[in-house]
Amino acid sequence: MIRPEQMDRRFVEEILAEPGGEHLLTCWSCGTCAATCLVRRFNPAFNPRLILHKAGLGLREAVLSSAEIWACSACDACYPRCPQGIHISDVMRAIRNLAIRAGYEAPGPAAQVDAATCSGCAVCTRACPYAAIERKPQMVNGQERTIAWVDRNLCQACGICVAACPSGAMSLEAMNDAELLTRVAAGGWLEQPGFLQGASDAPRLLAFVCQWSIRAEEEWERLQGLNDEHLRVVILPCSGRVEPAHVLLALSKGVDGVLVMGCHEGECHYQRGTYLGRGKVALLNEMMAAVGLAPQRVRFAESSALERRAFERQVAALREAIAALRPAEISEVRG
Amino acid sequence: MSKINLAAYWASSCGGCDIAIVELGEHLLELAQVADIVFWPAATDFKYADVEAMADGFIDLTLFNGAIRTEEDAHIAHLLRQKSKVLIAFGSCAMEGCIPGLSNLVGPERALRRASIETPSTDNPTGVLPQAQYEMPEGTLSLPRLCGVLHTLEEVVPVDFKIPGCPPNHDQVWKALQAYLAGDLPTNRLLGVDPRTVCDQCPRVREGKIRVKRFQRPHEVIADPERCFLEQGLVCAGPATHAGCGALCVKANMPCRGCYGPPESVADQGAALLDALVASFDGQSDAEVRQIVETIVDPIGTFYRFSLAHSFLQKARALTSWGDDPCASQAATEGETL
Known about the structure:
The complex is a heterodimer of chains A (335) and B (338).
Chain A: H1 9-17, H2 32-36, H3 39-42, H4 48-57, H5 60-64, H6 88-101, E1 112-113, H7 123-127, E2 133-140, E3 143-150, H8 160-164, E4 170-171, H9 177-185, E5 205-210, H10 217-223, E6 231-236, H11 244-252, E7 257-263, H12 273-291, E8 298-303, H13 310-323, H14 328-334
Parallel strand pairs in A: 5-6, 5-7, 7-8
Antiparallel strand pairs in A: 1-4, 2-3
Chain B: E1 4-10, H1 16-22, H2 27-34, E2 35-39, H3 48-52, E3 59-65, E4 68-70, H4 71-83, E5 84-90, H5 92-96, H6 108-118, E6 133-136, E7 139-142, E8 146-151, H7 153-156, E9 161-163, H8 170-181, H9 248-251, H10 269-278, H11 286-294, H12 299-303, H13 312-319
Parallel strand pairs in B: 1-2, 1-3, 3-5, 5-9
Antiparallel strand pairs in B: 4-8, 6-7
C-alpha cells in the first residue's frame, strides 16, 4: 500500500531535471512498454510501466532501491510503440543516475576482469556498447599496471567484451567460454564425425542463437526441444558474443555447419552486437574460402520482431546448402 | 658437474633461429663451459650418421627449429626425439608453422611451381621442377619428398617445451637455457616468454574509445609513433600475441605481426585477433560493417601470419582433404581445447 508520506514531490522534480527524465509525467500507464519488453522473458519482475508509475508518484526509496531499474538494456523496442513517445530507456538512465548519486549499485551480473591476465590492451573498452569499461591504474600483485575496469552500473552483461578479449582476461559468470564449450560439446556431441566426411546421414549443425533474436514466446519455448544428434542449439546473450574460435573448433571436429542467429539491422538488443556478429562471420567466410573450406558452411542469419519460424527456416536452408556440397560419390554410397 | 649434451637442428626454416642462438654472444662461452655441442648443422660439421650412432637419450637437450615440410624433416624429427631427453620446439616454425605454414593455403604442388618457375627472380626456361629422383651417369640423385601439408614439430613427435618467436629473442633464449640448466622449468611447457601480451610491454598511448572506419596497411601511411596502431586503423597483432619480445616491432614504429603466438589461455591466435579487431569496428549498419571488412586485405595472412599450420582452420581443412601425406605418422597433437 502506498501512503501519502512516502510520496516525495522533490523526487519527481529531480527526475524531471535529469537529462532524459523530462517526459516522466506524460506516461499514461497503458503498459504497452511492458507488453513489448524483451527483458521480461528473463526477468519477469521487470516492468517499465510500474517503475515509471512509482517514480511519477515520487516513491523515492521504492524506486531507487529496486533491482529492476538496472535491468533495462536500452534496446528501445518500447520506444516506437509508446503512444506518448516516451524514450523510456532515457528515463531509466535518469533514475539510475539519481540512484548512483544516492549510493545504490547495480546488482549485476557484470563482466569481470582477471587482473593478473589483463594487459590493458583496450580492446574491451572499444568493444563495449555502453562505454562501461575503462582503463585504470590498479595495484596487481604489488605492481601498478593500467588495466581494464568494469563499471557495474553501466554493464549489461552482453558478453561482447568477453568475446573480444584476446587474452581470456574478461569473463561473464553465466556465459564464459568454459560454459559455452560445455554446452556445445555436452554428451559427446562434438566428437561425432560429420556428413561431409561421409559419416552422418544428414548435416550436423551447431547454432549459436542470440537470446533476443527469437521474439515469439512459443518459438522461444520450443527452441531447446529442437536439439538432437543433428542440431545443437547454444543460446548466447547476443550474436556479438559469438567466438570465432568456437566456430572454427566445431568445424575442426567435423561439425558440418554453424549458424549464428542474430537480430535484424537496427534491432540489436545491445546496440552494436549484431554488427559485430556479422563482421566476424564475414571475415570467417573470407578466410574459409581462402583455405579451401566452403564458406557456405558458416552463416549469419537474422530474425526480426515480426518473423515467425525464422530459425527453423534458416536451419533447413543451411542443411540444404551443405547437402549440396557433399561429393556425389559419398551421397550415392550413403543413399 | 658433468657437461650436458646439446643439439640444435634446422628443419624447414630460414636460418634466423640459428642466428638467434649465435646472438647469445658472450653467453655462448658460458654455455660452452656447461654443454658439449654434439650436433648443430648450421654451425658445426656433424653428419646424420653421427646422430644415428648415438645411444637413445644421449642428447640432453635439443633445440629444434623449423617446420616439418619434407620427409627428411620428419625423419630427423623422429631421430632427434629418440636420441634426446628433452626436445624443444624452438621458434615459430617448429611451434606453429610460421610463414612457411601459409603455403598450406595452396598445397605443395602449387608452392613448388611458384618457387621454381613463377617468381620474378627465377630463370627456368624449360620449366623443370625439383624431382624426387634424377638419373645421372654417376648414379641416382634424390631429394626428399614434400609433405602434403606443412606440419608443426608437435604434430609429428611429442615435444617437451616450446620457445616462441620469429626468431626467439636471444635474451629469452638465454633465460630459457638458464632455466633448463637450473632445473627450474615451468609447468605450462612454454619457455622464453613474459607474462600477458605484447600490449603489456607496448609504450604507446591507448585512448581506449576510438573505433575504426577502415584499416590500412603499414606501407600506406606514416604511423604516429606515440599512439596505439589499432586506434590509427593499422592492424596490430599485439593484443593477441604473447609477450616476450619486448615489443621490438612497435618500438620501431611497425605494428606487431604476432610471431610470439597466442597468450597462455588462447588456443587459436587468428580467431582471437579477428575478434579483437572486429570489436573496434566503427560501423552502425550492415553496409558500413561490410565496407570495413573489405579494407582488411588478406585476412588469413593478417590473422594467421605465423599460426596457420597450427590453427583450427587448418584442422578443419584437413578433415575433408589432403589425401596421402608421406609425413603424417603418429600425429602427436594432444586433444586441444580452448
